[in-house]
Design brief:
This protein is mainly α. It has 2 domains: 60 residues, Arc Repressor Mutant, subunit A, CATH 1.10.10.60; 135 residues, Tetracycline Repressor, domain 2 (Orthogonal Bundle), CATH 1.10.357. 77% of the residues lie in helices and 0% in strands. It is built from 9 helices and no strands. Helix 1 crosses helix 2. The protein is globular.
Length: 198
């Protein structure tokens, strides 16, 4: 007796990936037209042309979808920072981190604004801290240095300041240059501080 046909693992993975991409794209389209707090599972399901049940297979809540979308953006941004093998100046790395996080926030203002407004500071820090800590740990290992005990504290301070400045800028109506200037200052001050810790 022959075994029943089962799809290959990568076929299942591709369907899951495609469904999740469709859900995220629908969610992001809705963010462009309505406030985050008004977005429901039903609205996302309608926009994505899936059932509510399919949504719940992939995400438990709209907030979970928001957090996952933000986490993926952070991971993409930090992947771009992964060292290519050369030793980089720590100050330059921190400045690059600041620029990368800022660009991530700027590139998708609807998602970024809703993430900053809707998640607590602790949730924001959880989204970004671990991917950035990984980049820092790699740089420290390349230098033959042990991990700085205060790395998690430094990242909390750094990210908390960066998210706070972004939130203030978003509500102030100031132009993009004001945000760029604030991010440059944060990067510079933080770079000097972390270099001093090492």
């Amino acid at each position: 007796m022959s075994e029943p046909w089962k799809p290959a693992v990568n076929e299942i993975d591709q369907r899951v990936v495609k469904t999740r991409e469709g859900i995220r794209a629908a969610f992001e389209r809705l963010l462009e037209t309505m406030p985050y707090n008004d977005i429901t599972v039903s609205a996302i399901a309608r926009e994505a042309r899936i059932s509510r049940r399919t949504f719940y297979v992939h995400y438990g809540t709209v907030e979970e979808l928001l957090r996952q979308s933000a986490r993926e953006r952070v991971e993409l941004a930090t992947d771009a920072l992964q060292p290519a093998g050369e030793l980089r100046d720590v100050g330059d790395l921190v400045r690059e981190l600041t620029r990368t996080v800022l660009e991530m926030l700027r590139d998708d203002p609807n998602l970024a604004g809703n993430v900053v407004k809707s998640l607590s500071t602790a949730q924001l820090l959880d989204l970004a801290r671990e991917p950035l800590a990984d980049v820092c740990r790699i740089e420290l290992r390349k230098r033959g240095m042990r991990e700085v005990e205060a790395l998690e504290d430094w990242l909390a301070f750094y990210l908390g300041g960066l998210f706070a400045v972004y939130g203030e800028w978003e509500h102030s109506g100031r132009d993009q240059k004001a945000l760029d200037d604030a991010a440059a200052l944060i990067g510079e001050v933080t770079a000097n501080g972390i270099v001093g810790m090492l």
